[in-house]
Amino acid sequence: MKPGADPVNDRILNILLQNSRLSYRAISRKAGVSVATAINRARSMEKSGTIKRHTIQIDYEMLGYDIDVAVFMRVSKGKLLEVEKRLSLYSNVYAVYDITGAFDVLVMARFRNRRELDSFIKRVQTLEYVERTETNLILNKVKDSF
User: Fold this and answer.
1) Is CB count within 10 Å lower at the N or C end of the chain?
2) Residues of the chain falling short of pLDDT 70
3) pTM over 0.90
4) 36 plus 83 within the same structural domain
């Protein structure tokens, strides 16, 4: 079943997005369904791959990561996948996307300070096949969830 096609599944997913550690009893109460329904629906969505994993949300600023950036990159010679694989190995990188437009790749990364960011950008610019980068500092997160 496609997302949005089942209002019960949608309610359960939204509840789990807010707190994946809730008991099935609490999920069933919030979703307005029986405990058995909540269990069966959640397990079915796990089995189908709709729910890929249960995780936590970390406040990275509390850990000292105050700088988030979006780095746009142009990659040459059809080496997009090769460059993206290398970029995904950097510990500060939390997302790598293929994009359309003037750039080929969008890298989302976070850093503790400007020195870390500067070092990262200089390393990335030396990667073979990276033609150009444009870095945008994220000033404020208005929404940081689905």
Assistant:
1) C
2) 1-4, 146
3) no
4) no
Distance, CA of 120 to CA of 114 (rounded, Å): 10
Tokens of 51: 């729910």
Residue at 107 is within a domain: yes
What range defines the domain where residue 108 resides?
Answer: 67-137
Q: How many other CB atoms are found less than 10 A from the CB of residue 141?
A: 9
Task: Give 22: exposed, middle or buried? Use CB within 10 Å, 0-12, 13-18, 19+.
Answer: middle
Q: What is the CATH number of the domain that holds 112?
A: 3.30.70.920
Cβ-Cβ contacts under 8 Å for 116 (sequence gap 6 or more): 67, 92
Contact 60, 97 (CB under 8 A): no
Look up tokens 């105050």; give the residue.
Answer: 66
Query: What type of residue is 132?
Result: R
Number of domains in the chain: 2
Task: Please tell me the predicted confidence (pLDDT) of residue 8.
Answer: 96
